[in-house]
Sequence to fold (541 residues):
Amino acid sequence: MTTIRTRFAAPQRLLHWLMAICILSMLFIGVGMVSTVAPKYLTLVQIHKPLGIAILVLALIRLGLRIFYGAPALPADLPEPIKLAAISSQYIFYALMIAMPLIGWAMLSAASYPVVLFGGVHLPSILPLNPRLHTLLWHAHYFLAFAFFAFILMHVAAILGHKLIRNDGIFETMAPVLTHDPSKRKTDLV
Amino acid sequence: MAQSPVSPKPIRLSSVLTIAAVIFVAAIAFAYTAGWLSPRRLTPEKLVAALAPPGGPALGHRRNHAKGICFTGTFEANGNGSALSKAEVFVRGQYPVLGRFNLATADPNAADAMVRVRGIGISITTPDGQEWRSAMIDAPIFPVSTPQAFYALLTASQSKDPDAMKKFIAANPGFLAFAGWAKSAPWTGSYAEERYNSLNSFLFVDESGVRHPIRWSLIPAATPVPISPEELAKRGPDFLEQEITQRVAASSQTWSLVVTVANPGDPIADPNKAWPPDRRTVDVGTLTVNQIEQERDGPCRDINFDPTVLPAGITTSEDPFPAARSAAYSRSYNARTAEESYYPRTATGAK
Fold:
């Protein structure tokens, strides 16, 4: 039997899917730009910086919404290890969504690069020129990007598992539209 | 159908396969984007590695133009550039400059007379917070037309195949024009007597949004005094740094910043091709070098003179080099700043 679950609030779902597109684009742009010397390198860099700041702003708004609205409770029959994974993954995603843009911004600052958003719009430097800090931040930005992508793959695998294997309603809490009438679920499974 | 012993619900094989397929496709797409499935892609990593001598790069130093010396000074705009670009740097006024004279070699200890090409890196900042960085050389044209050809040149020049350079030149005949300059152009005995050229084409964007394809050069006020490389060698391996230090200490050195405007049809995308000499030029101001500082503890040391750091009013053109240079310079910067311990600052500079 499955529990009929409530969903995340509409603004939370909107932000989730908007940010999913932004973050996946960001990760692909990131690994793509550092692997090419073609003219698209500059285009990708020019998207990477403002998109990163947009993600930072959206993540902070989303954190506010999360605190305001909360989240639907996990199914009572969810095994403890999965429950722990589900809860810790949320902390990890919030940490990465907020930390990655800040690390990128700090990294550019520590190398004394102007942080150009678009045209003449710059962000202030948040660190003084410092090669050691730059190296630390650059490594963090690089390795956390791969970790971020790995977490996203795990997240997708897990949510598809909830949908296709357990069909426990967790997918529906964040689904952009209701994929089927939850009341029919019982007949599917029994 | 598979039945899990711990779950009350049946686990369909098709579900598991669907999930595995989604993850696999996403991972492959990511790997492809990162270039892991494209060993022939010209990456910044490959380009920078190709600059290194057979013994490996000089750790802690720039991967090219490794020998250099810092300077500070000013750029005094005369206002003439404002007709071509809305950038504040062309508005009449005086703006601070940080720069670096350098030799185009991967060896920071190379003897001056062994290095044919000399360069300058400059960064001009304006009160609106914008910055213009440029890295220029004294050659009138670049050796090759594309970043791929530059990689081919680096590869050929280090190849064990005795015919490698011949094959390279057959495929890139434009190199001969550069080789002609390298062979016949007179050398000078001072960084202050060199003319430095952007080579790459950029676009100046004026107030009405019109884009003007341009190149720029720094033309020295000092008169070039020709010297043979043999004579330069006799003066010592680091003569250029000693000379510019003494020269600037005695009096500031100046260059005119001259912008050349392309005519329609001029080769914008190819820095191996000079524009005809009758093109319109605009003298937009004067670079003054006031003080020389050793690189080890100097202000230019940890600055990347990335030619794509441009103020609003200057942008890249269809010339493919600034993008490639930016990608490669970034790679070089990340490497050398992580190797600080191999190029330690002097005790007085330490914290």
